[in-house]
């Protein structure tokens, strides 16, 4: 009986080039190749990029400013652009007009849609002046009306356009998450790296500090800090204070993971060789140890974003975080706490949909990166 030795089967030129390309690729190239095969994770990344883009240039995409009030449009329901009405169809989109009528039962003035009134939508129109990115003076908006008001997501109880405020809130909430995670990441790298590399009494002291931070009750802490914020602080000062607080309580988990990984790697041969060759501690940690599991750190960072977003949203929702005139997803949801909002203005819950979409996008993106960064993942 004869057997075939497959181990010496010659590879074709294409297979040989593919194998050489695979084994000569860097770690991040391998992660990228595997990530490209995960469509759901790519969809989540695309959604987050779109949210970040429209939030960054919110003033251009908004027809109005975040504090602009439309006196004759109080709690107006969302206006859906359309192309046809009883008068016929047109290629230019339009929205129905808004008129005020007295309710025959309650005798209160109410704003209702009048489908017979047609307000044409124009693009790249002149409107309220603003500073794009904080320093470029402009007055051109992506869309708007020549007369009347357009409110794609409706208005709140003060007549402010919810669509405009929502895009501004997207920028605020995402920036708090990004800045907070970056600060927490730097703290975790420094503290976890020192604890994992040096060990001994240094590791013991840092671990006790980590445990103290982890057991501090978050809600009472925020209640005390929110009460300590001076009333005369500007919205910018409260924003940075909020970001710093979220970062200071968000680093222990990642720091413990970094510490555990460094404890297992500091005895490897390449680390000992670097130490014998005269490399300093900072160089060994930064050039040899951290890159060995940087892919896992990136995954942890992505997964940390939803917790930062939910923390800011929840705290602002209950009045312990950001406060008006600053707008964030949590601040906007404060208007949806009343029974009146549930009954008469359900569109005030639209910011909650943005929170859900952002959290789900970060979750699927983190799952995709985790699978792509797994060195034992079988290539598809």
Give an overview of the whole structure:
- Helix content is 55%, strand content 13%.
- It is α+β, with helices and mostly antiparallel strands and 380 residues long.
- The chain has two domains: 69-159, no CATH class; 165-373, MetI-like (MetI-like fold, Orthogonal Bundle), CATH 1.10.3720.10.
- The protein starts with 12 loop residues before the first helix and ends in a 7-residue tail after the last helix.
- Mean pLDDT is 81; it is low at 1-7.
- What is the architecture of the largest domain at the second tier of CATH? Orthogonal Bundle
Note the beta-strand portion: 5-15%
The total strand number stands at 5
Q: What is the total number of structural domains?
A: 2
Averaged pLDDT, please? 81
CATH topology of the largest domain: MetI-like fold
Q: Rounded to an integer, what's the Rg over CA atoms?
A: 27 Å
Could you write a compact summary of the structure shown?
This protein is an alpha+beta fold and 380 residues long. 55% of the residues lie in helices and 13% in strands. It has 2 domains: 69-159, no CATH class; 165-373, MetI-like (MetI-like fold, Orthogonal Bundle).
Key attributes of the depicted protein:
disordered N terminus; two-stranded antiparallel sheet; globular; alpha+beta; 5 strands; MetI-like fold; 380 residues; 55% helix; 2 domains; single chain; three-stranded antiparallel beta sheet
């Amino acid at each position: 009986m004869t057997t075939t030795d497959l181990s010496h089967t010659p590879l074709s030129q294409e297979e040989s080039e593919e194998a050489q390309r695979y084994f000569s690729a860097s770690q991040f190239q391998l992660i990228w190749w595997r990530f490209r095969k995960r469509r759901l994770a790519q969809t989540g990344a695309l959604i987050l990029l779109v949210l970040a883009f429209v939030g960054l240039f919110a003033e251009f995409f908004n027809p109005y400013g975040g504090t602009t009030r439309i006196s004759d449009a109080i709690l107006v329901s969302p206006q859906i652009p359309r192309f046809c009405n009883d008068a016929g169809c047109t290629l230019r989109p339009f929205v129905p007009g808004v008129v005020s009528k007295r309710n025959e039962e309650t005798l209160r003035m109410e704003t209702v849609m009048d489908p017979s009134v047609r307000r044409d939508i124009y693009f790249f129109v002149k409107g309220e002046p603003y500073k794009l990115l904080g320093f470029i003076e402009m007055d051109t908006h992506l869309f708007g009306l020549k007369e009347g008001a357009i409110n794609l997501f409706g208005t709140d109880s003060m007549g402010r356009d919810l669509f405009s405020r929502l895009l501004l809130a997207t920028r605020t909430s995402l920036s708090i998450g990004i800045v907070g995670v970056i600060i927490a990441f730097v703290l975790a790298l420094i503290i976890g790296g020192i604890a994992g590399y040096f060990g001994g009494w240094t590791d013991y002291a840092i671990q006790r500090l980590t445990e103290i931070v982890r057991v501090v009750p978050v809600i009472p802490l925020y209640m005390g800090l929110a009460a300590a914020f001076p009333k005369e602080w500007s919205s910018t000062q409260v924003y940075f204070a909020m970001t710093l607080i979220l970062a200071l309580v968000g680093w222990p988990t990642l720091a413990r993971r970094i510490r555990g990984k460094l404890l297992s790697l500091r005895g490897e041969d390449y680390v000992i060789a670097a130490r014998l060759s005269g490399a300093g501690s900072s160089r060994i940690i930064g050039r040899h140890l951290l890159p060995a599991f940087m892919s896992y750190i990136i995954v942890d960072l992505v997964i940390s974003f939803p917790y930062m977003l939910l923390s800011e949203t929840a705290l602002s929702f209950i009045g312990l975080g950001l406060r008006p005139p600053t707008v964030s997803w949590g601040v906007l949801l404060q208007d949806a706490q009343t029974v009146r909002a549930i009954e008469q203005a359900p569109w005030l819950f639209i910011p909650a949909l943005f929170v859900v979409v952002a959290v789900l996008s970060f979750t699927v993106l983190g799952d995709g990166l985790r699978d792509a960064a797994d060195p034992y993942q079988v290539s598809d």
